[in-house]
Each structure stands twice: as C-alpha cells, then as structure tokens.
Amino acid sequence: MVKLFYILRNELAGTFHQTKNLLILFFIVVVYEETYTPMAQLLAQTGMEAGFYEPFILMIHNRLNIIAIPLIFVSIVSAFPHCRLDYFGMIRLNKRRWLAGEILFVTVVSFIVVCLLFIASCIFFMKLPDAGAHWGTFMEHFPHEFRELYEQNQTLILGAEVLTQGAPIKVFAYCALAMWMYLIVMGLIMIAGAACGKRLAGLAVDILLTLAGGAALYADGMVCWSLPLYHLMYGNHFNLFFAKVKLPVWCSFAYLGALIAALTVFCALKLKKMEVGEAS
After folding, report:
1. C-beta neighbour count of 228 within 10 angstroms
2. Where are the domains of the chain?
C-alpha cells in the first residue's frame, strides 16, 4: 500500500506542477462567460429560479464542452506516466504495483477534475435563486413564458429529453459518474500505450476517440453508441418523439465499466510479457 501511495504522490507532483493545469481554469472561465453569466442575467431579468444541479448538468450537455473536457484532461496528463518502469524503478516497485499505482492515479486525478467542474458550478449557483432539488422554473417555464428571449438563448435550456426523464439529482449523478468513468478510460489508454512502449500512440488514440465521439453527437443511430463519449449525454438515451428509450441508462455504465475492465486486463497481460525497460 505504501508503494501505491508513493506512485500516486510522484504522479500528482509531476502533473500538478505544470502550467498546463491552467487549461482547466481557462475552461471554467469560458463556461462562466458563455453559459453561467448569461444564465444569471436571464434569471435576474425574469425572476425565475434555477435548481442546484442545473449549471453542472447544462455544462455537460453542451456538445463543445463535452468534447473539451476530455481533451483538457488528456493535455494535463500528457506526460503521464512519470514513474517509468525501468531498471531503477523496479528496485522499488514491481510490475503489479506499478500498474496498480498508475490506475490509482488515473482514478484520483479524473475525480479531481470532475469535482473542480462541479465546485465551479456551485460557486456560480450561490448567487442564484434556489429551486431546491427540483427543476427550476427557468428550465421548465422560460421557453414558454419568454418565447423571444428563449429563441436568443436556446443553449441555456436543457432539452425536454433531459427534463422529463429524471429528477435533477439523478441526471447530475449520471453526468458526473459517466464523465469520471470516461476520463478513467482515457487514462487507461495512456497506460496501455506506455505498456506497449508507445506512449504517444496512447495519447493519439485518446484524442481521436474523443473527436470521433464528438462528431457522433451531431449524428444519430446505433453505431454512435460504440463510441464511449456518446454515452456521456443523458438525453441521448431517450427519444421523446417516439416516446421510447433508445438505450437504458444502465447499459452505458455497463459499457464504460467493461471498457475499464478490458483495458485493465490488457495492461496487466502486456506488462506480464514485457521486459523491464520496454515501457516508455
């Protein structure tokens, strides 16, 4: 256990001592300017309320944001893993501990990123009228009562496929957990690349997988569900026009969980066959 925390400490130190971490701050500022500030102005203008979880859910359901978050995460951890599996590293560690430590790092740092995004939305919400645990009047009634304003600010309102398919806390829990799992998948792909001696290839796969998933958000069809990013938007699971579920929510968690398990097994098998010093 001590060895695992040794790896975690070294990886966190190597990651958070970089200026690239400012990317997450820059992203939060952009979200404030493009989404949260206009939303606050409309709330003040109309006298309506917003629910506690709505700013975070709204951020995740913006197509550009959902592409940007994984790319920022990959950029922040692009130099990972810092603990190389070379001869000197093996004096302190073995392959199993190295893999467990790197997976622990990916799990922790991805959780930190999701928490930072949620905290940013909470800070914004502190200034807003509180609708409690329910959908606020802004989401439910603004499109009907202020039609002209709605036409100019449609990106600030969640779709009916989200509002009618679950309570805010349920949608929030789905968005946060799915994003966390997706970022873990991104990190595991980078570990797999390092285990194969092709760290940059892992980085490239992450970027291409995210961009392909982002393109799928503008399409429709069962093939889109093969891309993990497509699972992150709660509203994608429902078709209100035909009043049916496209894919049960639990299937997305099962799919992301299966990817995490498969990548973990792949890394373990690859490391088992690898000679010390091959990983890069």
Report:
1. 21
2. 2-273
Strand pairing category for 244-245 and 238-239: antiparallel
pTM, full prediction? 0.89
Name the β-bridge partners of 54. Answer: none
| Counts of helices then strands in the chain (DSSP H, E) | 13, 2
Residue with tokens 């429902």: 238
Residue pair 30/117 in contact (Cβ under 8 Å)? The answer is no
Identify residue 133 by its one-letter amino acid code. A
Buried-state track 4-16, b at ≥16 Cβ within 10 A, e below 16:
beebbeebeebbe
For 119, the token pair is 């905290």
Q: Which residues of the chain have pLDDT under 50?
A: 87-88, 91, 277, 279-280
Which residues make Cβ contacts (< 8 Å) with residue 42, sequence separation at least 6? 48, 138, 142, 149, 153, 156
CA distance 120 to 55: 9
